[in-house]
């Protein structure tokens, strides 16, 4: 099997190619700004350009695609709707149509933001979608393009992502904790973190099967608030920074509406025979170790 991975410069994409490499699975990786990368496995691709996407598929002939490329700056998306939809919706459509043409498996990485973020019950893959913001709308439309055009698809919704190769909540908390005695963190948004290193293992497990459909995937360990996550980050890192819980309204800095309920029901993963991810507490410990030692993980 030959796998094409989009968005390899990001947190998840970089870990996916690391996992493929460890397993000896043939792959090509693409993103914007890779032209100078001295490796034939990587190439530049603007997924919003339909012609260039078709040329890439004709040349590289993948058997499967793990589509990690996305606009993920949630607040900035509110002012850049056209650009966001060009990447997350139109770009995904271009990948989906190419997969359909070449009879490829396609894995699309989506988000908890496709739901309305209300209530307290974990969202099931079959629940109705009603995005709260531009980012969520664009990712949901991407889902629809995949579902409508690709026969062999996986749509995997994730939440609260952190990984070595990119900006994330853990790094932000560590940076702020070094220069502040106290930090304010919201305690009324509930979900579960997802470590990209662990998620990459699951995605490659999935792409090697024909168990197609919608899935939710985060680390195990229970549902928490961002406040809970920050407290555990500082505890494991050995920081004495005090964390003050506040409501989303009191915090008041986000341009985009944020979901209060990001709980995802992952039972379909187990039903399909996939191994759940480790606990988020364990994932955080390993992430901090990698980060502190600056370990090259692929």
Please provide a written account of the structure.
The chain is an alpha/beta fold. Helices cover 42% and strands 19% of the residues. The protein is built from 11 helices and 15 strands. Strands 3-2-1-4-5-6-11 form a 7-stranded parallel beta sheet, sandwiched between helices. It has a two-stranded parallel sheet with strand order 7-10. A two-stranded parallel sheet has the order 8-14. Helix 1 (11-23) packs across helix 7 (196-207) and helix 6 packs across helix 8 (226-237). The two termini are 20 Å apart.
If strands are numbered along the chain, what order do they take across the biggest sheet? 3-2-1-4-5-6-11
Amino-to-carboxy terminus distance:
20 Å
**DSSP helix count?**
11
Give average pLDDT, whole number: 95
Structural class: alpha/beta
Shape: globular
Helix content: 40-55%
Topology pattern, helix = H, strand = E? EHEEHEHHEHEEHEEEHEEEHEHHEH
Quaternary class: single chain
Residue windows where pLDDT falls under 50 for at least 5 positions: none
Counted beta strands = 15
Strand content bin: 15-25%
Q: Output the radius of gyration.
A: 19 Å
What characterizes the major β-sheet?
Answer: 7 strands, parallel
Entry keywords:
42% helix; two-stranded parallel sheet; single chain; alpha/beta; 7-stranded parallel beta sheet
Can I get a quick summary?
By secondary structure, the chain is α/β, with parallel strands linked by helices. Helix content is 42%, strand content 19%. The protein has helices at residues 11-23, 50-60, 74-77, 81-102, 134-149, 169-179, 196-207, 226-237, 248-251, 267-271, 280-293; strands at residues 2-6, 26-31, 42-44, 64-67, 105-111, 153-158, 161-162, 182-186, 190-191, 194-195, 213-216, 219-220, 224-225, 242-246, 277-279.
């Amino acid at each position: 099997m030959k796998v094409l991975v989009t968005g390899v410069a990001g947190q998840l994409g970089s870990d996916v190619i690391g996992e493929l490499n460890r397993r000896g699975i043939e792959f090509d990786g693409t993103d914007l700004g890779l032209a100078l990368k001295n490796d034939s496995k990587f190439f530049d691709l603007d997924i919003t350009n339909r012609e260039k996407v078709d040329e890439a598929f004709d040349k590289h002939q993948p058997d499967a695609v793990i589509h990690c490329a996305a606009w993920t700056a949630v607040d900035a998306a509110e002012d850049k709707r056209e650009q966001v939809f060009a990447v997350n919706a139109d770009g995904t459509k271009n990948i989906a149509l190419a997969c359909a043409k070449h009879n490829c498996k396609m894995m699309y990485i989506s988000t908890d933001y496709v739901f309305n973020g209300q209530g307290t019950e974990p969202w099931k893959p079959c629940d109705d979608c009603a995005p709260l913001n531009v980012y969520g709308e664009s990712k949901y439309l991407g889902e629809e393009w995949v579902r409508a055009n690709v026969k062999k698809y996986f749509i995997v919704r994730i939440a609260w992502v952190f990984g070595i190769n990119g900006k994330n909540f853990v790094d932000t908390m560590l940076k702020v904790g070094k220069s502040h005695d106290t930090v304010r963190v919201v305690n009324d948004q509930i979900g579960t973190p997802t470590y990209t290193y662990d998620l990459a293992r699951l995605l490659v497990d999935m792409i090697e099967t024909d168990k197609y459909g919608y899935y939710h995937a985060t680390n195990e360990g229970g549902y928490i608030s961002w406040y809970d996550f920050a407290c555990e980050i500082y505890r494991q890192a050995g920081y004495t920074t005090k964390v003050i819980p506040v409501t989303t309204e009191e915090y008041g800095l986000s341009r985009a509406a944020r979901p209060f309920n990001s709980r995802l029901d992952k039972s379909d993963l187990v039903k399909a025979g996939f191994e759940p991810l480790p606990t988020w507490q364990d994932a955080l410990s390993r992430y901090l170790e990698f980060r502190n030692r600056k370990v090259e993980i692929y």
